[in-house]
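User: Hey, my collaborator sent me this sequence without any context and asked if I could get a structure. I don't really work with proteins. Can you help?
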Amino acid sequence: MENKFFSRKVELLSIKLESLREELKISREILHSAASEINERFQKEHDTVKESEQENLETPQNSLSSRPATHTQRPQPPPNVVVDPQSKNIFRKIALKLHPDKLELLEDPAEKKKKLDLYLAAQVAAQKGDMITLAHIAMKINIDPPEITKKMIIKAENEIKSIKKELSHIESTLVWQWFITTNESIKEEILNKIFKALNERNKTN
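Assistant: No problem. I've predicted the 3D structure and written it out in structure-token form, which is a compact way to encode the shape of the chain:
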């Protein structure tokens, strides 16, 4: 019974991570797009605009944030990937079932895409040493999952906390609130606040 509950916990963690990672990816894209639009509007109203304004808009801090927020670093490119032996081993087992070459004979396009997506997700997880995701994928295709340690569970839980923190950080910005509101008068009010903050920043710099 304990093993059953443990596997369900791994499944739940994996689903949460997948959902939150996708939400964070989309939220970052939205923030960048909204900041670009605001920056373009600001440029139309001002002769001189610093190149850093786009970055300033996307960083929830000072007067561009509706409330004090903890610092969130901008995403950095990943370092050179070194796949650990355990991740490599389980990925090989997954690849034996899901490698694109083995999917060529599948006639159902939907099933083929589903398995290819799992393979690609396993590939990324192996590069990151994400054993929780690898274990979940293994269970999905009836492969004995790797041993999941308490350290791996804590690592996944910490990532979930970190993503939630960044999402909260993004949603604290005036740029995000400008994008999300459907009330045109509030939208204009928020935009004026952002322009005022950028003007003040330009004067001090």
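In plain terms: Helices lie at 2-45, 53-58, 85-98, 109-128, 131-140, 150-171, 174-180, 184-204. You can pass these tokens on to your collaborator as they are.
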